[in-house]
Amino acid sequence: MRYSKNIMKKISKLFILGLIFIAFACEPNIENPQGTGNLGTLVPEGTQLVYVAIGNSLTAGYQDGAVYGSAQEFSFPNLLAKQLGISDFVQPAVPEDGIGTRMTFGGFTATGSPIINRAALTISTPTNANYAKPYNNLGIPGSIAYDLIDESDFATRSQTRSNPFYYAFLRNNALGASMIKQAIALQPNFVTMWIGNNDVLGYATSGGTISTTGMPDNPVPTPVATISQILGGGMQAMIENLPNVKILLMTIPNVMGTPFFNVVPWNALVLTEQAKVDALNAAYGALGYSFKIGQNGFVAESPTGTMKMKQLTADDKIVLTIPQDSLKAGWGTLKPIPNRYVLDTDEQKLVAEAVAGYNQAINTIAGMYPNNITVVDMNALFANLMSNGYDIPGSSHFTPAYFSGEFFSLDGIHPNSKGYGVIANEIIKVINAKFGANIPFVFVQNLPAIIVYK
Amino acid sequence: MRSFLLTSLVILMSVNMAFSSGFQINDHSARSVGMGFSTVATSKDASAIFYNPANITFQEGMLNFSAGASYIMPGSKFTGLTTMNQNETTSLETWNFIIPHFYANWKTPVTNLHLGLGVFAPFGLGTQWPEDWYGRHSAKKTYLEALEINPVLAYQFKVANMPVSVAAGFGYVMGKVELEKNLTTFSPEPMLNLKGDGTATTYNFGLTIKPTHDLSIGASYRHNIDMNFEGDTKYENTAGLEALFVEGPGSANINFPNDLRVGISYNVTPNFLIEAGINYIGWSSYDTLAITFDKGPGNPTAPYTSYQPRLYKDVIAYRLGAEYRIGDICVRGGFYYDPIPVDPVNVEPVLPESDRLGFSTGFGLELAKDLKFDLGYLFIYGTQTDVVGNENGFDGYYNSWANVVSLTLSYQLK
After folding, report:
1. Are residues A136 and A240 in the same domain?
2. Please, is B311 exposed, middle or buried when counting C-beta atoms within 10 Å of its C-beta (0-12, 13-18, 19+)?
3. Is A12 near chain B, with CB under 8 Å?
4. Which residues face A415 on adjacent strands?
5. Tens-place pLDDT, residues A367-379
6. Do A433 and A305 share a domain, yes or no?
7. Distance between alpha carbon A136 and the CA centroid of its chain, in Å?
8. H-helix or E-strand containing A9?
9. Quick check: A1 pLDDT over 50?
10. Interchain CB distance below 8 Å, A7 and B77
11. Where a domain ends, among A319, A343, A367?
């Protein structure tokens, strides 16, 4: 009896000791370094940041041939807004079916090539179409510089230009008669603007066969003087209305390095039979074309060539949209590839000159408003991607290669979510440097390369 | 074309835990916990089987039993990513562990020959980061355990009148591993889960010399455990990608490090014992982690093996412990330093490594003549690990710590 009483006493003593131990159990107080996230002099201290993004498909977050909800989440303005700590950045809420012809990844073929499916044209309506103010993301896919100041009816413009986005995203001229006016209506103190790409892209993707909408059909890209005038006028209007606004103006990348112009090779004409080689040499020998067993340059229409034809060389580009079944059925041999699918050296030169001219205009305009406008050199970013690639440590070495390069989406011309992350980071870099801000970068490693159809 | 899928899928799958360096567990006795694991030269209960089995020959009684458990409460925080100019702190989800231990040793009828059996978990534990955290492409949930059944044989003899004890043991080890991460190449993000188990055998030796009545020198070696895990890969959230991610068998290999401990203890007074020791841990065994998928992620028609360099290196830990006896109570204290077994630049969120300082205290109580109760408390402080220039871009600060409460009941049959 005494023995067990003694044990009980000891156990209760131990119990108290045990409690002391548990009370001891501690979590160290860790001081974390402070300081990221401040906006520097981007806006005066205590002012709320109001951000409007103006642009085209690149601003809308267009990828895989469409604008759709799960891709808009990764639009560069939306990624940027998150990093800036803006919680009410409103984009058109496009349903998952999207607006456009959405391309989806369908696995790999037996030989390891990606299978890409393309949906029929779908035009869904944003679920927030009744939002009472203009959208903060005024990225209108297909828009050209002139759309900045064009005050024509959006619904009519969508019809005449066969582009649903004017009506879908700008909605009602009462919200603001033009893109610039809708932007001003939101009274932003921070604006990104990236427009002019389509003023050269329309010409390029059409194989140099059409001018920018509204321009005389020469065909040529929008003239540099026109761009200069429109951008200059747009910026002047905005700054007059919003004297303290900070505008980041992006330069225009030269698109010739995108997969769109580099997936289908100029010499994908593979001949295996001598009889066919002989027949082609006989037919085209007089024009100086030559064919051999193996890879050969396609025969294509060319406005400047003899008999308006030429045999393609390494300097010529075939666009991604060329119908593959037509190529198999004899395009490029029996029938020259139509001009709209080929961008020859002269046409490429026009593209390059236009891009250089636009960028010069952009820099000139920025120089006129040094307190308001800062240039972000997206052209340099893309040029570097094309020639050297872009590294994300531990994740990726981005290249312009289609699919495997991880930067461009399935449509071959618009970036994918990772690509938009890189673009957002380029802008953050400029904000941090110019305004002494300390904005955290987007962690591109966790952004998807491929969005799976839901 | 597929290559980028593969590299981004399997990057960094790894195993780890959050407090002892690497994923070694030493908390297999409340007395030892209380003394900062300084129980290699002298051990007073059957837990000697883990720390140095040669010491069982110095125990009185025909039979000794010890049983108990350690409650381990680890924590870790990551602040970063500094490469991304980010400064967000993410904490490991709370995940505490009960690690049981059991020992018995028997003085055989053969003079000076003792037999022992230990059951303990020499390696293991796990980490769980929040669902949407930055490192989810690398690690979300990681779990590892190795449970060893360790019979030992020990024999005592005299050399020049000096007692010497030697021991040898055999270990049968059962392991479990689970790894879970997101495949951020896709949106929505599929989740990959690998689960496997395996068995392995190993062996160990012990040696104790007592040059004088009060001085004891001990050494204990545990061989590495090279374990193959066989299991299954499972995916979630792969709608639309079913053709790419096919569930199937998988395997992995983990080579748990070998471990050599040397300690020297001295009775300053009959009631005051101190011990100092060093512990060499062969972490370089954890050099590469290889995981084989029978149906390769992204390309299920072929198997795929991912090799991740872990670049661990051998380390030496230093341990110090003391025990003071007042009547039927023993008061203990301990301290140790366990250096980081990998270059900080190679520290990944799966294994938030740091230099570790252990501060411990404990009490022992004779409940009755033959029944002892021990309680140990250990606080492990991980010094901040600053990762700068990590090749996966995962730069930031890791802060880790752990609280351990250990409890052992020992019974002696004369």
Report:
1. yes
2. middle
3. no
4. A408
5. 999 999 999 999 9
6. no
7. 17
8. helix A2-24
9. no
10. no
11. A343
